[in-house]
Design goal:
Blueprint: E1 8-11, H1 37-48, E2 56-61, H2 70-85, E3 90-97, H3 104-113, E4 116-119, H4 125-131
Parallel strand pairs: 1-2, 2-3, 3-4
């Protein structure tokens, strides 16, 4: 299979979320299952067979709360991606997060790896505080 000009890969590392928002659309946000390194390696191997990858490929970790798995998890995943794809494309990570777990360690990881970061914004404070609940 040849994927023409693939630039973005959206992956879900875990369905688990540290919050329990009333409006959340994810049905399994209590499930603490994690993507295994072997599964991520298979994704990278599949992509490596594509001879039309761009200069840079962005993996966006999305759904659930990606930051619950910690920096060490993503360092390991980045190592896999760079080992498998490093000769073909430059790998970058992006994270879609609720921001609750973002701290100095995450800040340094984002800076050191030149990753991208986006925060979910749920609306005005009255709505946000009423509907976005901690576990």
């Amino acid at each position: 299979m040849n994927i023409s000009h693939l630039k973005l890969v959206v992956v879900q590392a875990t369905p688990f979320c540290n919050l329990d928002c009333h409006y959340c659309y994810l049905p399994h946000r209590n499930d603490k299952t994690q993507m295994s390194p072997e599964v991520f390696e298979q994704i990278c191997l599949f992509l490596s067979k594509n001879n039309r990858l761009p200069v840079e490929t962005l993996f966006v970790w999305h759904a659930g709360e990606p930051l619950v798995l910690g920096v060490a998890f993503y360092r390991a995943m980045l190592s896999i991606a760079e080992r498998v794809l490093g000769d073909v494309t430059s790998v970058r990570f992006g994270f879609q997060t609720n921001g609750v777990l973002f701290d100095e360690e995450w800040s340094l990881f984002i800076k050191d790896t030149k990753s991208k970061l986006s925060f979910s914004i749920d609306g005005p404070q009255w709505y946000h505080d009423e509907n976005r609940k901690y576990r």
